[in-house]
Write a structure and sequence with these properties.
With 260 residues, this protein is α/β, with parallel strands linked by helices. The chain contains eight helices and eleven strands. It has a single domain, classed as Aldolase class I (TIM Barrel, Alpha-Beta Barrel). Helix 1 runs parallel beside helix 2.
Length: 260
Amino acid sequence: MKQIKPIQVQGKPLGGGALPAIITPLVGATQEAILDEVAAIVPRRPDLLEWRIDFFTAIGDIKAVVGTAEAIRQAAGGIPVLLTRRNVSEGGTPIPIAEAEVVAIYTAACQARCVEMIDYELSNAPEDLKRLREVSAANGVAMIMSYHNFELTPDAATLDSRFAAAEKLGADVAKVAVMPRDAQDVLALLAATDRARHLISIPLISIAMGGVGSLSRIFGWVYGSAATFAVGKSSSAPGQIGIEDLRSALAIVRKAVAGS
């Protein structure tokens, strides 16, 4: 099995290099609610906290976003923070601001160095992707470039092209998340992940969503996915599993794979 590339955060492998790293979402609407989530999640020790700012009611206030990110980091006990605005076209919550303001928020967060990572969709304007790649790199913030399809699992060529596009555009991590209609779609995603780990040089995250897709959250790392997502307090996508249950399942699979 070809070695999986761990995600690097400020020069260190996420989760100490254990695969897959566990990412847990924060989806509170206010700073108070978010910090309540952090307090509940931190004792469970995920490897990364993903703050979904599309759920944040003060998203239009850059100072509030940066201040809340700083508060999350202070409360996180050393767990790094990923900043994500998920586009509504890719499963996110509608927000009252234009894309230029979203780019300004990401830029301010990178310049304040109040997060360790950002996630921005490949479907966004090329000039915005380029701008955020430049500002994140200049400030030592890792960048995930992502693709999400909440309707279906695209064909193999489309899946392959999304992984490749992230690498071509300079991402630190390529992420692909899709909705399977059946177990065969889950296999299609895992096969695409396996192809990508042999063809591209950056770490991968791949997720099949929904009930049957939860299999990918447990087994995806065997095929090359360096991270998976688990529920800490509230879920941000269908099919997410609780941290404790996911850890137990991963331990069983790791033991079996190591012994094979």
